[in-house]
Write a structure and sequence with these properties.
By secondary structure, the protein is of the alpha+beta class. The chain has helices at residues 12-30, 35-47, 52-69, and strands at residues 75-89, 99-113, 118-127, 131-136, 146-148, 152-161, 167-175, 177-181, 188-191, 194-202, 221-222, 229-233, 236-244. α1 packs across α2 and α1 crosses α3 (52-69). The relative contact order is 0.15.
Length: 246
């Protein structure tokens, strides 16, 4: 049994801390601390070299993790929506620029083993058709490109386990025939249709973050209803909505 007095005993402040920590997450979550209790708690933490804020955050994280780690074998179902919107070169030859405003959407559903960061089963996904508007030359005074065909910005073809606990997405982009003006207003050059396939990495954010206080950043933010995690990068907005696995 732990002793809280005497020369060979645990220091009294540490003894109080050890007694308090198993219940800290419940106390923090219920927010029942009085101002006096708060002061005692902070002094107690500091006396044993523990940052009070970090201890509270750890307690909150522990509470937030329980619904996800205590579910069916720690499996999390993810509904992921990616929305692209941005100025994009729709020419298949990067040496010739044909800008347009492009929008696209992809939806993904998958099962994720949280503790191991492993994809389970076969994910499903749905691609939408890209929308292309307002074709233009990089120089506003120059003749705009002529787009002859359908441009498909993002056609998801496969999802598989990647390295380091990430997903690897196999993506295809399809370029139409494009006519671009040479020397701003001169004769047009025809860029042939083409397609390119490439892998992309996707890191699946842990649902535990939904219970944490995060800075407002494009890298990761929590939605207003605190049910989803949102990332923004390269014209894409990815919304990850997890639910405990069934």
């Amino acid at each position: 049994m732990m002793r809280c007095a005497g020369p060979k005993s645990v220091p009294f402040a540490l003894c109080l801390l050890l007694a308090f920590l198993p219940h800290a997450d419940r106390v923090v979550a219920q927010n029942k601390m009085s101002a006096e209790d708060e002061a005692i708690y902070r002094n107690m933490m500091k006396s044993v070299g523990v940052d009070p804020g970090a201890a509270k955050d750890a307690a909150k994280s522990n509470t937030a993790a329980r619904p996800w780690t205590g579910g069916k074998n720690g499996i999390v179902d993810y509904h992921i929506i990616g929305v692209y919107q941005g100025r994009t070169n729709v020419s298949g030859d990067s040496n010739w620029i044909a800008y347009a405003d492009v929008t696209d959407t992809v939806t993904i559903d998958l099962k994720w083993k949280l503790a191991e960061s492993v994809l389970l089963g076969t994910p499903t996904f749905q691609n939408s058709t890209s929308t292309v508007t307002n074709p233009r030359n990089p120089e506003s005074k120059c003749s705009p490109p002529v787009i002859k065909g359908e441009y498909e910005h993002y056609e998801l073809q496969e999802i598989r386990q990647g390295l380091g606990g990430a997903l690897e997405l196999q993506v295809k982009t399809t370029y139409p025939v494009v006519e671009v003006a040479q020397f701003c207003t001169g004769a047009r050059k025809t860029i042939p249709a083409s397609s390119k396939a490439h892998p992309e990495e996707m890191v699946v954010p842990s649902p535990v973050m939904l219970g944490m206080s995060l800075p407002d950043s494009d890298n990761l933010r929590i939605s207003a209803d605190r049910k989803s995690m949102v990332q923004q990068k390269g014209g894409w907005t990815w919304t990850f909505t997890p639910t405990p696995g069934k």
